[in-house]
Write a sequence for this structure.
């Protein structure tokens, strides 16, 4: 497989200045400025292969968007080397830009007052897409996203979900090899989110487009991304398969038990007690021991209900962030 | 290659036409100031035959040409790039295989054509309605020279707006540069008063700046106030300014992009 993204000790420092409040503060700032260096990325490295669907996650301000901006050529790095599709992104050669697309939640490329079709036709010219290829791709995308009827309505009259779909179409008309998606599901309702996910999954499967995806909805990540990269405060915390993540950070299952006559004493010897009330107790039990533990509990006590589930991804990730701090 | 920029101009033009009221408003913007100056100069010329080589008919023609050309040479969409830089929407241009400068140029053409068409209609109506004594050059050679110079003014005008807009890479807050320019530029281009009527000192300063070549110079050609050799020299200076402004623009753009942080994304 082809490596499409190579990132080596990438650093980015933002320089901004302090401003004291009020009018006098503004004047002081004019005379003598106190600069503030903020390290957004502290030397991260990773590689991404052609066709991968990678979830890039981290809390607000972790450096996700900064990374995507550098990879797509919007920002210059402070230090480190980056190679994307064999190009240095921030040189922004046209050959590079023809092969990528970056969709940010609210930064529309669609013309607000015109029907989306006009924006599509503009992109057709900008990317020099041949007529046939344009028609085929447009037909395919509008079909898959079910937006055929929306193309001739001024964009300002559409809902957020509809706009987001059309925005995505605008980004995909030139069939980029590499797609950056910065929170494409933000603000969408549950149904639209689901549709967006189905679309991305199908598109990635069919076109083999490499997709890097950030989202705060872990449901998105769970459903779409076999591989996740986790970043916090400018450093990589984890890079690997989703299953590996669970194995490494949550090597246990959640065992939920409801007893018929109250919780027996000494329950904590079966596992870590996470929560309990009158009749119900929730335990974290090691993965290997879970079958044995369940059998023993069922044998020893009178149990009304038992369930064994995976630790939710949210919890795993929260745990990673907490241990780091 | 060239087609994408044609398409940009057409899209911008279409978007402009979405707002019919704005078009109506732009009618009024053309007509009211014109009416005001025409009445002003009619009064002035009641007892005087000529001011600094201007007859009444030349003076009124001067302001009609100003009204006609202003949108063409300085359409004032400076705000677009400035906003793009401050709010991070510049990203959408940086991401696509398109040059922001030529994009800007096409945008200006798309907008100017829309408004200039309106201005032309309004002004023709105005000339007939008020039976204006319009000055038309006797020597027809001056017409093509005038048109060439207007073409160069458009190129120079977009170059200047582009350059000023890029200041937003450094000036993160609104510093009022826009306002200063808004008041200063009409004086320096001659839109307010013909430069010849200004004090000698101001005239000299204006002659060293590129703004004079946006309006005053082409209009001087139309009014046959300068000789052919002066026109030749002026056109040459216009081209020189275009070269300087465009090279400067390219340099500032490269430096600015390094500072750009695509905020808010």
């Amino acid at each position: 497989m082809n490596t499409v993204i190579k990132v080596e000790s990438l650093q980015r420092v933002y320089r901004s200045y302090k401003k004291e409040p009020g009018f006098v503060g503004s004047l002081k700032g004019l005379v003598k400025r106190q600069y503030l260096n903020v390290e957004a990325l502290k030397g991260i490295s990773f590689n991404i292969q052609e066709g991968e669907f990678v979830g890039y996650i981290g809390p607000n301000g972790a450096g996700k968007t900064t990374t995507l901006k550098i990879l797509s050529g919007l920002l210059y790095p402070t230090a480190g080397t980056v190679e994307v599709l064999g190009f240095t992104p921030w040189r922004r050669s046209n050959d590079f830009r023809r092969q990528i697309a970056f969709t940010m939640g609210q930064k529309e490329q669609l013309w607000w007052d015109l029907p989306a079709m006009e924006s599509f036709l503009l992109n057709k010219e900008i990317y020099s897409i041949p007529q046939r290829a344009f028609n085929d791709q447009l037909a395919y995308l509008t079909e898959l996203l079910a937006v055929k009827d929306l193309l001739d309505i001024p964009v300002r009259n559409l809902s957020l979900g509809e706009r987001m779909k059309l925005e995505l179409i605008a980004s995909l008309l030139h069939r980029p090899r590499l797609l950056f998606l910065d929170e494409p599901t933000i603000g969408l309702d549950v149904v639209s989110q689901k549709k967006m996910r189905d679309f991305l999954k199908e598109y990635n499967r069919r076109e083999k487009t490499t997709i890097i995806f950030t989202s705060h909805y872990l449901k998105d990540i769970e459903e779409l991304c076999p591989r996740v990269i986790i970043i916090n405060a400018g450093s990589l915390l984890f890079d690997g398969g989703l299953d590996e993540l669970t194995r490494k950070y949550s090597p246990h299952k959640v065992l939920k038990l409801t007893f018929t006559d109250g919780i027996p004493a000494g329950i904590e010897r079966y596992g870590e007690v996470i929560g309990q009330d009158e009749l119900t107790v929730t335990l974290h039990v090691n993965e290997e021991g879970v079958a044995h533990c369940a059998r023993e509990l069922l044998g020893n006590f009178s149990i009304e209900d038992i369930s064994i589930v995976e630790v939710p991804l949210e919890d795993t990730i929260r745990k990673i962030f907490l241990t780091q701090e | 290659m060239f087609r994408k920029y044609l398409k940009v101009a057409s899209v911008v033009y279409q978007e402009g036409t979405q707002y019919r009221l704005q078009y109506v408003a732009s009618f009024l913007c053309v007509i009211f100031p014109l009416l005001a100056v025409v009445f002003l100069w009619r009064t002035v010329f009641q007892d005087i035959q000529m001011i600094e080589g201007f007859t009444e008919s030349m003076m009124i023609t001067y302001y009609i040409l100003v009204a006609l050309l202003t949108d063409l040479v300085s359409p004032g969409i400076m705000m677009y790039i400035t906003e793009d830089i401050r709010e991070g929407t510049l990203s959408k241009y940086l991401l696509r295989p398109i040059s922001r400068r030529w994009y800007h140029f096409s945008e200006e053409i798309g907008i100017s054509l829309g408004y200039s068409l309106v201005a032309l209609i309004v002004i023709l109506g105005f000339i007939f309605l008020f039976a204006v004594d319009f000055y038309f050059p006797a020597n027809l050679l001056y017409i093509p020279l005038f048109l060439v110079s207007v073409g160069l003014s458009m190129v120079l005008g977009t170059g200047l707006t582009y350059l000023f807009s890029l200041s937003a890479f450094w000036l993160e807050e609104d510093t009022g540069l826009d306002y200063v320019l808004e008041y200063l530029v009409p004086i320096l281009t001659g839109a307010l008063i013909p430069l010849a009527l200004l004090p000698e000192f101001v005239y000299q300063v204006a002659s060293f700046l590129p703004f004079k070549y946006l309006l005053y110079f082409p209009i001087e050609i139309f009014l046959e106030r300068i000789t052919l050799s002066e026109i030749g020299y002026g056109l040459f200076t216009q081209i020189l300014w275009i070269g300087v402004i465009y090279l400067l623009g390219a340099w500032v753009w490269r430096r600015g992009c390094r500072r750009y942080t695509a905020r808010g994304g």
About this structure: Chain B has a mean pLDDT of 86. The first helix of chain B runs from residue 3 to 17. DSSP finds eleven helices and no strands in chain B. The interface with chain A takes residues 1, 3-4, 6-8, 11, 14-15, 18-19, 88-89, 91-92, 94-98, 257-258, 260-262, 265 of chain B (CB under 8 Å).
